[in-house]
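Slack export, channel: ligand-projects

TW: morning all. Re-posting the request from yesterday since it got buried. We need the structure predicted with the small molecule present, not the apo form. The ligand is NAP; the SMILES is in the block with the sequence. No rush, but it would help planning for next week.
GE: picking it up
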Amino acid sequence: MNKETKIYIAGHRGMVGSAIWRTLEAKGYSNLLGRTSQELDLKDQIAVRSFFTEEQPEVVIDAAARVGGILANNEYPYQFLMENMQIQNNLIDAAMIQNVDKFIFLGSSCIYPKLAPQPLKEEYLLTDSLEPTNEWYAIAKITGVKACQAIRKQFGKDFVSLMPTNLYGTHDNFDLKTSHVLPAMIRKFHEAKQNGEPVELWGSGTPMREFLFVDDMAESVIFALENKLPEHLYNVGTGEDLTIRELAETIQKVVGHTGELIWDSSKPDGTPRKLMDISKMHDLGWKHKIDLQEGIKKTYAWFLENIENVKEVKI
Ligand SMILES: NC(=O)c1ccc[n+]([C@@H]2O[C@H](COP(=O)([O-])OP(=O)(O)OC[C@H]3O[C@@H](n4cnc5c(N)ncnc54)[C@H](OP(=O)(O)O)[C@@H]3O)[C@@H](O)[C@H]2O)c1
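GE: finished. pasting the full token output, ligand included:
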């Protein structure tokens, strides 16, 4: 691996992919390769194979996926299962055939069972049932983890999976129908501030969640790129969580909304707690740098600068 190594970042325009691209560029990596979904539909196996034959990437980072929050997962189970499997299968298989040196697969903390002990350890994978609202997405991601593990086991190749906790940051999706909780709250508080209205949020506010700023996630990918990690699966997070209520209050403060905050407890809460055990990454020497308050400030500043054309992901 050197600064001229040809690195293909699948999903390089997404929140995570673009952060990985920026971080690699800032570190002097000069041979980066990216294609938009219009240029290369990763669901198309033939197109993916010929792209790999033509471009011969030496390293592949898979940050391409059909991504969304509870609502989108629940309403579009087929897309979340099938598109994610198609995208990752085509990438993993083409990388195998082309004999790439390294493949980094990004999954999600939802691969772990709904009622697994907290904090979530890597070995809890496949020990119990999944959270039903996002099992489609989770099952697709689990098959990706297993494909990389099988390649590692059978062929001794450096295919590794990183499971990030909830991510947020610049280039996030702020569409209220398809976004995750943190960007959705930023948008809600911002609009309520503009209109002098209260903010109504789903649930009781008591579930606990962990959030990692996307630039820290990118740093973990570069860590996995520059080091040969000894195992096939690693959690990536801060190792710290807070209640959804505390999150809402932090965002309210950063945005400067002074109106009322109403909790609609007739709406579902989801999993009571979701915290990653990140001791394996810590033991290897990786740790996040940006705390939640600072990350939310950076994200809100970016949202304000890009308010005219923030991403709104439609299915
Ligand atoms: N966001 C989170 O909180 C979170 C948490 C844990 C894990 N992750 C994981 O991180 C990875 C990236 O997530 P993200 O938040 O960056 O998502 P994102 O912003 O929605 O970006 C996903 C990217 O995937 C590309 N893509 C989707 N379908 C494609 C297709 N058929 N062909 C080619 N490209 C396609 C899109 O490319 P175009 O822009 O060109 O259309 C897009 O840039 C995913 O694997 C996700 O599971 C995210």
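GE: first-pass observations. Residues 11, 13-17, 36-37, 41-43, 63-67, 87, 106, 108, 164, 166-167, 180 surround NAP (CB under 6 Å). The domain at 7-309 is CATH 3.40.50.720 (Rossmann fold).
TW: perfect, thank you
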